[in-house]
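Collaborator request log, item 7. Partner lab (contact: R.S.) asked for a structural prediction of Aminotransferase IV to inform their binding assays.
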Amino acid sequence: MANYPEKVYINGRIVPHHEAKISIFDRGFLFGDGVYEVMVQIGETFFYGKEHLDRLVGCLKKIKLDFDVSTLPKEIERLLTASKLNAKDCLVYIQVTRGVAVRKHSFPKTGKPTIIMYATPFTLPDINQKSIATITTEDNRWHRCDIKATSLLGNVMANDQAAEQGMYESIFIRDGRVTEASHCNVFFVKNSIVYTHPADTYILDGITRQIIIQLCKDLKIAFREEPILEENLTTMDEAFLSGTTTQIASIGRIDDHLFDPDGSIGPITRKLQQAFLELKRTYKETPMTT
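Returned to partner:
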């Protein structure tokens, strides 16, 4: 079937996607009781692969799910071989749930996790040249957005709200402050200073977000982890999104406000995009041990 991966890894087995099955009593299916990770391979190298797996370790600890992530690099290699994606640009999705148990809210005393992975061809553009249109929406999600949980209904509903209006993304507002977007982190620029919400429980601390913070330090761009007030959105000079597949994408519009009517990308955003491109070209992979 079009757009589905050819092979799926499930609990040590690699099978055609139409043969991949889980129990209806898997807690990931019943409760969204699990976490996930997404990373990209550029040629032979996973871009910040170790950092992605380290985050997976952290999220598993936060939900008290015992799984040895150090087993994954060899299994990812097996999956890539079966998918004929060794040394090719691709995206890898990893999901770990609490496994199969009789439906009960409290964690089961026994059982083992369900591990699912797949890889699909995916090539990042050198620079994301898009000027993104967004809306704002109230952040009604829970208070542990720092966990990369599979239970994404709040994010999905917000993104669908944007799609219905012909927009790409929804930017969340919580208590009058911008937190993040439905599947991206969000940054603003004012007077050549870059702002983004601090990495607390209201946002996911994105790997690309972390890279941008380091790039600001390297480029001597002033940077502050401070939330932007909703009432100040239209006073910002630039805005951009970040994410593993989004990379760094300029925001051209939030609701009815246009940041640059001619669609050009702001100078700070452009500078960070160029630095991110150079980083991809020169990146040396750290072994994906955890």
